[in-house]
Write a structure and sequence with these properties.
By secondary structure, this protein is of the alpha/beta class. Helices cover about 45% and strands about 10% of the residues. The termini are far apart. Pfam families: SIS_2 (PF13580). This is SIS domain-containing protein.
Protein backbone atom coordinates (compact mmCIF):
# COMPACT_ATOMS: atom_id res chain seq x y z
CA UNK A 1 0.00 0.00 0.00
CA UNK A 2 1.39 3.43 -0.93
CA UNK A 3 1.71 6.19 1.61
CA UNK A 4 -1.29 8.48 2.12
CA UNK A 5 -1.03 11.64 0.07
CA UNK A 6 -3.38 13.55 2.36
CA UNK A 7 -1.55 12.48 5.51
CA UNK A 8 1.68 13.81 4.03
CA UNK A 9 -0.03 17.05 3.06
CA UNK A 10 -1.20 17.55 6.62
CA UNK A 11 2.33 17.10 7.98
CA UNK A 12 3.59 19.58 5.41
CA UNK A 13 0.92 22.10 6.41
CA UNK A 14 1.64 21.70 10.12
CA UNK A 15 5.39 22.00 9.59
CA UNK A 16 4.85 25.12 7.50
CA UNK A 17 2.77 26.72 10.24
CA UNK A 18 5.34 25.82 12.90
CA UNK A 19 8.09 27.38 10.81
CA UNK A 20 6.05 30.56 10.36
CA UNK A 21 5.39 30.83 14.08
CA UNK A 22 9.04 30.16 14.90
CA UNK A 23 10.23 32.87 12.48
CA UNK A 24 7.52 35.50 12.90
CA UNK A 25 6.58 35.17 16.60
CA UNK A 26 10.02 34.63 18.15
CA UNK A 27 10.17 38.08 19.76
CA UNK A 28 6.69 37.70 21.26
CA UNK A 29 7.45 34.19 22.52
CA UNK A 30 10.62 35.49 24.16
CA UNK A 31 8.65 38.35 25.74
CA UNK A 32 6.07 35.91 27.07
CA UNK A 33 8.84 33.74 28.50
CA UNK A 34 10.32 36.80 30.21
CA UNK A 35 6.96 37.72 31.73
CA UNK A 36 6.61 34.21 33.13
CA UNK A 37 10.17 34.26 34.47
CA UNK A 38 9.50 37.63 36.12
CA UNK A 39 6.47 36.19 37.87
CA UNK A 40 8.27 33.03 39.01
CA UNK A 41 11.15 35.11 40.36
CA UNK A 42 8.78 37.48 42.17
CA UNK A 43 6.89 34.66 43.89
CA UNK A 44 3.78 34.89 41.72
CA UNK A 45 1.63 32.15 40.27
CA UNK A 46 0.96 30.98 36.72
CA UNK A 47 -2.40 30.07 35.18
CA UNK A 48 -3.55 28.84 31.78
CA UNK A 49 -7.08 28.89 30.38
CA UNK A 50 -8.67 27.68 27.18
CA UNK A 51 -12.22 26.76 26.16
CA UNK A 52 -13.21 23.75 24.10
CA UNK A 53 -10.36 22.37 22.04
CA UNK A 54 -8.25 25.39 23.02
CA UNK A 55 -8.22 23.88 26.50
CA UNK A 56 -6.07 21.01 25.20
CA UNK A 57 -3.03 23.26 24.88
CA UNK A 58 -3.70 24.72 28.33
CA UNK A 59 -3.96 21.27 29.89
CA UNK A 60 -0.77 20.22 28.10
CA UNK A 61 1.36 22.51 30.28
CA UNK A 62 -0.21 21.61 33.64
CA UNK A 63 1.22 18.86 35.87
CA UNK A 64 3.31 17.17 33.24
CA UNK A 65 6.81 15.78 32.90
CA UNK A 66 9.20 18.46 31.69
CA UNK A 67 6.76 21.22 32.54
CA UNK A 68 6.79 24.07 35.04
CA UNK A 69 5.28 22.87 38.29
CA UNK A 70 3.78 26.32 38.90
CA UNK A 71 1.46 26.27 35.88
CA UNK A 72 -2.14 25.85 37.03
CA UNK A 73 -5.27 25.24 34.97
CA UNK A 74 -7.96 27.89 35.36
CA UNK A 75 -11.22 26.12 34.66
CA UNK A 76 -14.64 27.40 33.70
CA UNK A 77 -17.15 24.61 34.38
CA UNK A 78 -18.61 23.20 31.21
CA UNK A 79 -16.07 24.73 28.84
CA UNK A 80 -12.86 22.82 29.50
CA UNK A 81 -13.53 19.83 27.26
CA UNK A 82 -16.01 17.74 25.34
CA UNK A 83 -17.05 15.76 28.41
CA UNK A 84 -19.97 18.12 29.04
CA UNK A 85 -23.28 16.83 27.66
CA UNK A 86 -24.38 17.92 25.19
CA UNK A 87 -20.99 18.95 23.80
CA UNK A 88 -22.61 21.96 22.14
CA UNK A 89 -23.27 23.43 25.59
CA UNK A 90 -19.58 24.22 25.94
CA UNK A 91 -19.68 26.36 22.81
CA UNK A 92 -22.80 28.13 24.07
CA UNK A 93 -21.19 28.92 27.43
CA UNK A 94 -18.30 30.67 25.69
CA UNK A 95 -20.81 33.35 24.64
CA UNK A 96 -22.24 33.99 28.11
CA UNK A 97 -21.48 37.40 29.60
CA UNK A 98 -20.42 37.49 33.24
CA UNK A 99 -19.15 33.92 33.45
CA UNK A 100 -15.47 34.80 33.24
CA UNK A 101 -15.68 37.43 35.97
CA UNK A 102 -17.42 34.99 38.31
CA UNK A 103 -14.70 32.40 37.75
CA UNK A 104 -11.86 34.87 38.24
CA UNK A 105 -13.40 36.28 41.41
CA UNK A 106 -13.55 32.79 42.94
CA UNK A 107 -10.11 31.71 41.75
CA UNK A 108 -6.76 32.13 43.54
CA UNK A 109 -5.45 34.35 40.73
CA UNK A 110 -4.38 37.77 41.97
CA UNK A 111 -2.32 40.82 41.12
CA UNK A 112 1.18 39.98 39.93
CA UNK A 113 0.24 36.57 38.52
CA UNK A 114 0.30 35.54 34.86
CA UNK A 115 -2.71 34.21 32.96
CA UNK A 116 -2.26 32.63 29.54
CA UNK A 117 -5.56 32.68 27.63
CA UNK A 118 -5.86 30.43 24.60
CA UNK A 119 -8.66 31.10 22.13
CA UNK A 120 -8.32 30.34 18.44
CA UNK A 121 -10.86 32.92 17.28
CA UNK A 122 -10.62 35.23 20.30
CA UNK A 123 -14.10 36.51 19.39
CA UNK A 124 -16.33 35.00 22.09
CA UNK A 125 -17.38 36.75 25.26
CA UNK A 126 -15.60 34.37 27.61
CA UNK A 127 -11.94 34.85 26.57
CA UNK A 128 -12.40 38.58 25.97
CA UNK A 129 -14.03 39.13 29.35
CA UNK A 130 -11.44 36.90 31.00
CA UNK A 131 -8.63 39.04 29.60
CA UNK A 132 -10.33 42.32 30.51
CA UNK A 133 -11.02 41.31 34.09
CA UNK A 134 -7.66 39.67 34.63
CA UNK A 135 -5.84 42.84 33.63
CA UNK A 136 -8.14 44.89 35.84
CA UNK A 137 -7.09 42.63 38.74
CA UNK A 138 -3.43 43.29 37.98
CA UNK A 139 -2.54 40.08 36.20
CA UNK A 140 -0.27 39.96 33.17
CA UNK A 141 -2.27 38.47 30.30
CA UNK A 142 -0.68 36.50 27.48
CA UNK A 143 -3.05 35.71 24.62
CA UNK A 144 -2.54 32.83 22.21
CA UNK A 145 -4.89 33.33 19.27
CA UNK A 146 -5.21 33.56 15.51
CA UNK A 147 -5.05 37.21 14.54
CA UNK A 148 -6.73 36.36 11.23
CA UNK A 149 -10.07 36.02 13.03
CA UNK A 150 -9.77 39.52 14.48
CA UNK A 151 -9.11 40.88 11.02
CA UNK A 152 -11.80 38.98 9.12
CA UNK A 153 -14.67 38.18 11.54
CA UNK A 154 -16.89 40.09 13.95
CA UNK A 155 -16.54 39.97 17.72
CA UNK A 156 -19.26 38.34 19.83
CA UNK A 157 -18.35 40.44 22.86
CA UNK A 158 -20.37 43.52 23.77
CA UNK A 159 -17.25 45.68 23.47
CA UNK A 160 -16.71 44.66 19.87
CA UNK A 161 -13.15 43.68 20.76
CA UNK A 162 -11.20 40.46 20.44
CA UNK A 163 -8.87 38.66 22.84
CA UNK A 164 -5.85 40.26 21.18
CA UNK A 165 -7.17 43.72 22.12
CA UNK A 166 -6.97 43.01 25.86
CA UNK A 167 -3.60 41.28 26.28
CA UNK A 168 -0.19 42.47 27.40
CA UNK A 169 1.45 40.05 24.98
CA UNK A 170 -0.14 38.40 21.92
CA UNK A 171 1.14 35.20 20.29
CA UNK A 172 -0.33 34.65 16.81
CA UNK A 173 -0.81 31.01 15.88
CA UNK A 174 -1.24 31.90 12.17
CA UNK A 175 -4.15 29.47 11.87
CA UNK A 176 -6.50 30.31 9.01
CA UNK A 177 -10.18 30.97 9.66
CA UNK A 178 -12.03 27.67 9.88
CA UNK A 179 -9.08 25.74 11.34
CA UNK A 180 -8.84 23.12 8.59
CA UNK A 181 -5.72 22.71 6.49
CA UNK A 182 -6.88 20.33 3.76
CA UNK A 183 -9.45 20.06 0.99
CA UNK A 184 -9.85 17.18 -1.44
CA UNK A 185 -12.16 16.10 -4.26
CA UNK A 186 -15.13 14.16 -2.97
CA UNK A 187 -14.87 15.66 0.53
CA UNK A 188 -17.37 18.48 0.93
CA UNK A 189 -15.95 20.15 4.04
CA UNK A 190 -12.36 21.31 4.69
CA UNK A 191 -10.65 19.07 7.24
CA UNK A 192 -7.48 18.29 9.25
CA UNK A 193 -7.23 21.11 11.83
CA UNK A 194 -3.73 22.07 12.99
CA UNK A 195 -4.52 24.53 15.78
CA UNK A 196 -3.82 22.04 18.58
CA UNK A 197 -0.42 21.09 17.15
CA UNK A 198 0.64 24.70 16.66
CA UNK A 199 -0.82 26.13 19.87
CA UNK A 200 0.73 23.37 21.99
CA UNK A 201 4.08 24.07 20.35
CA UNK A 202 3.73 27.78 21.15
CA UNK A 203 3.01 26.97 24.79
CA UNK A 204 6.03 24.69 25.11
CA UNK A 205 8.29 27.17 23.33
CA UNK A 206 7.12 29.94 25.65
CA UNK A 207 7.91 27.86 28.73
CA UNK A 208 11.29 26.89 27.28
CA UNK A 209 12.01 30.61 26.90
CA UNK A 210 10.95 31.13 30.52
CA UNK A 211 13.29 28.37 31.72
CA UNK A 212 16.12 29.95 29.75
CA UNK A 213 15.45 33.32 31.37
CA UNK A 214 15.33 31.84 34.87
CA UNK A 215 18.64 30.05 34.44
CA UNK A 216 20.21 33.27 33.15
CA UNK A 217 19.11 34.92 36.42
CA UNK A 218 20.60 32.15 38.53
CA UNK A 219 17.21 30.57 39.36
CA UNK A 220 16.58 26.86 38.89
CA UNK A 221 13.28 26.46 37.01
CA UNK A 222 10.77 24.48 39.12
CA UNK A 223 10.32 21.66 36.61
CA UNK A 224 8.61 18.32 37.02
CA UNK A 225 10.19 15.03 35.99
CA UNK A 226 8.42 11.96 34.67
CA UNK A 227 7.18 9.77 37.50
CA UNK A 228 7.96 6.81 35.23
CA UNK A 229 11.73 7.25 35.47
CA UNK A 230 13.83 6.32 38.49
CA UNK A 231 13.88 9.14 41.03
CA UNK A 232 11.12 11.09 39.32
CA UNK A 233 8.55 10.61 42.06
CA UNK A 234 10.91 11.84 44.79
CA UNK A 235 12.03 14.78 42.64
CA UNK A 236 8.45 15.89 42.06
CA UNK A 237 7.63 15.55 45.73
CA UNK A 238 10.44 17.93 46.63
CA UNK A 239 9.39 20.48 44.00
CA UNK A 240 5.75 20.36 45.05
CA UNK A 241 6.66 20.74 48.70
CA UNK A 242 8.93 23.71 48.04
CA UNK A 243 6.36 25.50 45.89
CA UNK A 244 3.16 24.22 47.52
CA UNK A 245 1.77 27.72 48.10
CA UNK A 246 1.79 28.34 44.35
CA UNK A 247 0.47 24.98 43.14
CA UNK A 248 -3.32 24.63 43.22
CA UNK A 249 -3.95 21.34 41.41
CA UNK A 250 -3.00 19.46 44.59
CA UNK A 251 -5.61 21.01 46.88
Amino acid sequence: MSDSKLAGQFFDAAIGLLQRVRDEESASITAAGSAIADTVEAGGRLFAYGAGHSSLAAQDVVYRAGGLALMNLLTVPGTTGVDVMPATLGSALERVDGLASAVLDSSPATSGDVLVIISLSGRNALPVEMAQNARALGLTVIGVTSVAYAEQTRSRHVSGGFLRDHCDIVLDSKIAIGDAELTAPGIEAPFAPASTVVTSAIMQAMLAAAAEQLVARGIEPPLLRSANVDGGHDWNGRVMTEYRERIFYRH
